[in-house]
Amino acid sequence: MIPAVHLDLRAHACPITWVKARIALSRLAPGEVLELLLRDGEARENIPRSAEEEGHEVLRLAPAPEEGPGAWRAWLARGASGEVPSWP
Amino acid sequence: MALSETEVARWSRQLLLPGMGEASQELLRGARVRVTGGGLATAPAIYYLAAAGVGTIWIEDSDPVTPGCGAGFALGPEDEGRAKGAALVEFGRWASGFLAADPYRAGSRPTALVVCGSSLDVSRAIADEARLLRLPHVVADVDGQGGAVTTVPVGSPCYSCGSRPGLGAAPTAEGGAAMGALAALELVLLLTGASTEPRARRIEVFRGTPLVRATARQAGCACAGPAAAGLAP
Fold first, then answer.
1. How close are the terminal C-alpha atoms of chain A, in Å?
2. CA B208 to each of CA B131, B144, B147, B164, B204: distance values in angstroms, whole numbers, following the listed order
3. What share of chain B is helix, strand, coil (3-state, %, to 5)?
4. Rounded to a whole number, what is the distance in Å from the CA of A1 to chain B's nearest CA?
């Protein structure tokens, strides 16, 4: 599976990391894959969890030492509905 | 057009809210909202519309700024004597560097209205104009320290159908702030579709307690005519 979009979020902090990932996911078709480069810590912990909460799938989350110390790579597949949860 | 990096950074918290996203923010950026009526809710409504990312606000208020005009939320003593509309335009530009704020000019084509009438009659007249122009609108009525906000999507029961007499208390700045903020939020939800709740509704706030009810068309009201059915030119 080839990621449709690559996004390096290592220069950003919360909440911009998830905002950018969320926008990138919203631009994909259901099933398409977004590849993220993340820093260890907040981004690695929160982005996969937030993505799953919104119906996306975490295909892979692994260290990426070739990208530098503390780098992680995540592959997220856009969920089928593609709907952003609405207010109650 | 997609949001810029600067816009993403500016609206980052709002972009995370349920129902909001890039498309919603783009809808707000493309909105042209006429804020009118001269009531106490005007300045707070402008502030919160600007803070939400509405792209264009046209302000209509020809009264002068006076010590008791209730715009202390936005204007200071140095503004006294100026046209309130012009002073509020400057306030809107201060509230958001992304906002194009200008005085309303006849012939301009807004996409929605926020009606902050100085009286129920003023609100009713402007809301009726908006209904005939088939523009979605939100009406803020200030009543003492509370009031009511009526949301009128196109084709839904009109403001006159949805409203009912309040306490009739003298409007206060606190009531204006609450109703202006609530009106701005209602318009944001209306423009973005970020809520699954029925949009044609009235929220009444008295003694700090909100009461939300869907509006219903009154028998014989003009809003049930051809304009409501989408048959008017």
1. 36
2. 30, 11, 10, 18, 10
3. 40, 20, 40
4. 26
Catalytically annotated residues of A: 14
Return the minimum-mean-pLDDT range out of B76-80, B101-105, B208-212.
B76-80
Residue A11, domain CATH: 3.30.110.40
Q: What is the pLDDT of residues A15-45, one digit of tens each?
A: 899 999 999 999 999 999 999 999 999 999 9
Best CA proximity match to A35, nearest among A75, A66, A71: A75
CA distance A86 to chain B (A): 4
Q: What are phi and psi of B188, to 5 degrees?
A: -60, -45
Q: Are B114 and B49 in contact, with CB atoms under 8 Å apart?
A: yes
One-letter amino acid identity for B117? Answer: G
Pick B5-55+112-223's CATH classification: 1.10.10.10, 3.40.50.150, 3.20.20.70, 3.40.50.720.
Answer: 3.40.50.720
Cross-chain Cβ contact A16/B3 below 8 Å:
no
A84 close contact with B: CB closer than 8 A: yes
Per-residue tokens: B107: 């012939």
**ipTM reported for the complex, 2 dp:** 0.75
Q: Using alpha carbons only, give the angle A18, B21, B18 rounded to the nearest 5 degrees.
A: 85
